[in-house]
Task: inverse folding
């Protein structure tokens, strides 16, 4: 095991070929010692008789075919975990970078994790109130869900993710029965933690999150793994796995409810493409490897709840869509794995509407069980469908009005147009520190629906209109 | 067993071993000291490429490979129903027990069907009977919904020398058959290789619909019992919801549901929901007619490739008993991607978009296993296997290879449309793009069983929807007022068809399932509305708004929520109201 091989034959990108090896296994961790004595980590991508293909987690700069020593460590990449990780900042490969002491591990865990047996999963159905109307009412987030933010370059995804991390909470039974989700308080005895992984983001963006956590005092219950843009590309393969391993330990062994924020998945996929290209693999769409779906699934599927365990992992990965193109392989494959997506829209952003969450194209697949009586309020799912359908119609009419002129619209069309405008200004738009309870959000919805004639309200129930709508609409009959 | 079979290369799910000169193609092997299950997929001299159904990290060259002599097979016996398997027929609950952890660990060997459960076998054949493959030897009440039939294995014939009723485990001998090659002991447990279709006497032409309770499917784009259909659509358009709805409500007797490379939480939803859902016809839990195969996206990729074959072989087995079986595969794109991944690792020459050149033939081979057949056996019973495959085209682009190869072999195309889903129109099936090639085969059945004018109404509805899309373009350019009254009426009727008929609330207990009679009556009422109004709207100075705001329109909109037993009364009333209210205008 401690044999050091000096038989590196090829170096290409982050890959090394080591010849004459014996007893090397697939996925094994290895340590590479350069001629100047510095050490780097790598893993075995392919194990053959007498040959190993090793992928470095750092750049291969300075490596030589002669003199470089490779030691195979007989285990896969492991992370030492402990409750003391809370409040600490680590590099993208798991070393502390906050000048604090080394963490003394309670346990060492393989960072690749293992798939959760579908029969052992518990179905996620606890409503999480994020305080953001477009998420709470239209794309309800559930504990144990993986709900990515589909963003674009220059859109405020970081602020939204930070706002979710800051405000997210589960309502108590008392709050639900009283129909009030108090902004603060309602403390219950549950433990919360945030795990944050940054891959290839700028120093400023990483710092933004760190400051956010510090300001709100959340840092003491957060674990940060930072790989910034100037850190090695290949390290990005390990960063999210480290974060999820820490999250799994906190959730399933220490009963924490963990929110995992991963940014930016696009950089992760690009790192994967770089390694695949260096291995000369047959590429799939746009040069990304054919196994991108499987690889992403091994990250995203590490969210959820397990029967008999108190904790949970809720994932909020962020990705920037190249050219805002949702059909690009990264958002596309992500959307096929995750349980919905929060989509940000450049048009709304340019109208200075924050958060620019567009209902069309956003989705939460798990919202069914998290909406309605006993969880939020009986009118929730009807309101969701009605607002989305009406806003979709309103934006269609807005396009029509551009061609025909507003004066040629029918009265109903005009009503939809007005509704769409108010919907953007009053429902979608809110402050970065505004924490709306679900009940406030629903009531805003009812107020907006007064713009439409009652005969158009096909998705909400009649008795809910009578009960919750403050001003009766004039019926057109 | 070859002693010297040794691993020479490991790269992800692909393992290469030498000393494999005794290996057969598609033979199951045990890889390494951990005894991971793998399958031989390529042979070069004494070197074999093996796809491994479990995670291979920590495995290296020099470790042994053990041949088993068997091809990858499924176990067939009472006890299949209500089971939940991974891609290679290991019960997930047993894996959990064996692993002692909620996480999947490796090298777990568990039987596909319980060896200790006892079943009541009632012999229906008797000693001295001349039997051949497919003949029924006896029956077992497997669940309250399905009677399991124990059949003579295909390719065997002879005379029964011994047969007994009683309480047995599946490995006990229940009958002995004297064949040309000697006596064969028959147990309830039989095996069949997953990649070989089970034999039948021959296929028949489908002539009955698979009723799903979804109006857009049954009325506009019906699939036949024994037919094959595809549901392609971008993410978020409702593939999984549609598939689950089919599994819940379609009128097949046995359901095989394959979650192939899909979301863990969604499988959990099915697993927790089905035991509580009641079968609409019998009131028994749906699980009693269901077999589930769950191979989520983070489980090993090779097992994903096998999962569709595991599923369809089990489905064929129940078809051979004479049942109508429906199989849902969600999603076949993940299966195709698994093939692509293995093909890439084998360094095969890629075809389109990196998929292997044999994608088309494998897809066709899979869907051709659907059909309505005359089963083997002397009682000329018929069974059917309908296959509905979801396809997840990248970027929702239907021109990609998996969708195109699927459309070449399926006769029904239910195109899911992201735009409709954004508007919360569900099921988000595009009525202009979708098609069915069974319409002609099934017309006779609909006309005979439901109503004479059912096929005619269907054609008329499609025409109205076609016309609407043309008129919409005109409206977009010059506004609604430019249309003639008749055209306005077409637009209004189309809107009613879309909002009141095609839109269906899958979460509402009543609306989720519409009987064919209700579908017929509802559509008929809308068409009656158009028919009656047609003569009225051409009258001079006719105020179209008055027609739009008739109270009966509200009744039509609400009618899809009426209980099944009130259908005829409700719609008689509505039809009456249409006539009186319109003539009063």
Result:
């Amino acid at each position: 095991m401690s044999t050091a091989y000096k038989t590196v034959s090829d170096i290409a990108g982050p890959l090394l070929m080591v010849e004459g090896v014996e007893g090397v296994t697939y996925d094994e961790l290895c340590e590479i010692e350069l001629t100047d004595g510095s050490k780097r980590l790598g893993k075995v991508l392919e194990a053959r008789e007498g040959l190993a293909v090793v992928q470095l987690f750092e750049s291969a700069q300075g490596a030589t075919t002669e003199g470089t020593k490779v030691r195979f460590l007989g285990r896969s990449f492991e992370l030492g975990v402990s409750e003391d990780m809370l409040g600490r900042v680590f590099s993208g490969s798991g070393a502390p970078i906050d000048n604090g002491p080394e963490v003394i591990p309670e346990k060492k865990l393989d960072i690749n994790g293992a798939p959760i047996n579908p029969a052992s999963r518990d179905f996620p159905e606890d409503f999480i109130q994020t305080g953001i109307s477009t998420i709470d009412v239209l794309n309800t987030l559930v504990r144990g869900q993986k709900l990515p933010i589909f963003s674009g370059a220059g859109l405020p995804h970081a602020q939204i993710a930070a706002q979710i991390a800051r405000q997210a909470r589960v309502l108590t039974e008392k709050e639900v029965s009283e129909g009030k989700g108090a902004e603060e308080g309602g403390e219950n005895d549950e433990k919360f933690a945030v795990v944050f992984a940054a891959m290839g983001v700028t120093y400023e963006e990483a710092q933004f999150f760190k400051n956010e956590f510090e300001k709100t005092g959340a840092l003491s219950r957060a674990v940060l793994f930072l790989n910034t843009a100037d850190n090695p590309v290949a390290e990005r393969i390990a960063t999210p796995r480290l974060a999820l391993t820490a999250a799994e330990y906190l959730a399933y062994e220490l009963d924490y409810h963990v929110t995992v924020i991963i940014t930016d998945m696009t950089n992760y996929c690009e790192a994967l493409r770089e390694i695949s290209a260096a291995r000369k693999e047959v590429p799939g769409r746009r040069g990304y490897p054919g196994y991108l779906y499987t690889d992403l699934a091994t990250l995203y599927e590490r969210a959820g709840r397990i029967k008999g365990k108190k904790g949970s992992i809720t994932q909020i990965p962020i990705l920037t869509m190249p050219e805002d193109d949702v059909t690009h392989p990264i958002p596309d494959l992500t959307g096929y794995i995750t349980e919905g997506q929060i989509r940000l829209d450049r048009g709304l952003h340019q109208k200075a509407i924050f958060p620019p969450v567009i209902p069309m194209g956003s989705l939460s697949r798990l919202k069914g069980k998290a909406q309605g009586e006993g969880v939020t309020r009986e009118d929730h799912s009807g309101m969701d469908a009605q607002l989305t359908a009406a806003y979709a119609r309103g934006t269609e009419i807005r396009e029509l009005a551009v061609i025909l002129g507003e004066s040629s619209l029918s009265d109903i069309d005009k009503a939809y147009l007005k509704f769409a405008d108010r919907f953007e200004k009053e429902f979608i738009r809110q402050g970065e520190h505004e924490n709306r309870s679900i009940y406030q959000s629903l009531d805003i919805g009812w107020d907006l629906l007064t713009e439409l004639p009652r005969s158009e309200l096909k998705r909400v129930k009649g008795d809910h209109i009578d009960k919750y709508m403050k001003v009766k609409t004039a019926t057109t009959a | 067993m070859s002693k010297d079979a040794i691993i020479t290369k490991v790269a992800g799910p692909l393992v290469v071993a030498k000393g494999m000169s005794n290996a057969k193609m598609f033979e199951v092997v045990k890889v390494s000291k951990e005894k991971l299950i793998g399958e031989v997929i390529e042979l070069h001299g004494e070197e074999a490429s093996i796809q491994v159904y479990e995670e291979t990290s920590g495995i290296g060259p020099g470790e042994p490979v053990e041949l088993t002599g068997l091809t990858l097979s499924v176990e067939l016996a009472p006890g299949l129903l209500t089971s939940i398997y991974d891609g290679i027929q290991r019960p997930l609950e047993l894996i959990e027990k064996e692993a002692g952890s909620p996480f999947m660990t490796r090298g777990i060997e568990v039987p596909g069907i319980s060896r200790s459960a006892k079943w009541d076998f009632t012999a229906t054949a008797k000693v001295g009977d001349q039997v051949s493959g497919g003949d029924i030897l006896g029956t077992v009440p497997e669940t309250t919904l399905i009677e399991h039939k124990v059949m003579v294995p295909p390719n065997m014939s002879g005379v029964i020398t011994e047969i007994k009723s009683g309480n047995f485990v599946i490995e006990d001998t229940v009958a002995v058959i004297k064949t040309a090659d000697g006596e064969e002991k028959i147990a309830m447990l039989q095996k069949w290789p997953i990649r070989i279709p089970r034999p039948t006497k021959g296929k028949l032409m489908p002539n009955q619909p698979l009723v799903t309770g979804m109006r857009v499917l049954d009325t506009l784009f019906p699939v036949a019992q024994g037919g094959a259909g595809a549901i392609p659509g971008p993410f978020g358009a409702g593939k999984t919801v549609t598939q689950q709805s089919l599994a819940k409500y379609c009128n097949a007797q046995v359901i095989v549901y394959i979650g192939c490379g899909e979301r863990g939480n969604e499988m959990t939803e099915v697993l927790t929901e089905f035991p509580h859902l009641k079968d609409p016809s019998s009131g028994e839990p749906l699980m009693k007619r269901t077999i589930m195969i769950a191979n989520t996206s983070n489980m090993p990729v090779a097992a994903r490739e096998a999962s569709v074959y595991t599923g369809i072989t089990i489905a064929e087995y129940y078809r051979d008993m004479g049942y109508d079986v429906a199989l849902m595969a969600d999603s076949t794109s993940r299966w195709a991607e698994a093939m692509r991944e293995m093909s890439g690792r084998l360094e095969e020459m890629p075809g389109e978009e990196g998929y292997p050149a044999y994608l088309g033939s494998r897809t066709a081979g899979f869907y051709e296993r659907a059909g309505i057949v005359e089963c083997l056996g002397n009682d000329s019973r018929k069974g059917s296997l309908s296959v509905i495959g979801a396809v997840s085209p990248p970027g929702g682009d239907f021109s990609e290879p998996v969708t195109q190869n699927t459309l070449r072999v399926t006769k029904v195309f239910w195109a899911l449309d992201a735009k409709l889903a954004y508007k919360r129109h569900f099921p988000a099936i595009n009525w202009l793009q979708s098609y069915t090639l069974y319409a002609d085969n099934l017309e006779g059945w609909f006309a005979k069983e439901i109503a004479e004018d059912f096929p005619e109404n269907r054609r008329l509805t499609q025409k109205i929807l076609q016309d609407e899309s043309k008129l919409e373009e005109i409206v977009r350019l010059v506004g609604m007022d430019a249309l003639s009254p008749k055209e306005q009426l077409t637009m209004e009727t189309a809107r009613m068809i879309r909002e009141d008929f095609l839109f269906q609330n899958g979460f509402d207990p009543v609306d989720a399932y519409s009987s064919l009679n209700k579908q017929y009556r509802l559509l008929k009422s809308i068409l009656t509305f158009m028919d009656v109004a047609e003569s009225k709207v051409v009258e001079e100075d006719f105020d179209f708004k008055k027609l739009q705001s008739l109270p009966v329109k509200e009744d039509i909109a609400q009618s899809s929520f009426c209980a099944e037993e009130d259908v005829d009364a409700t719609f008689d009333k509505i039809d009456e109201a249409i006539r009186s209210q319109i003539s009063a205008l």
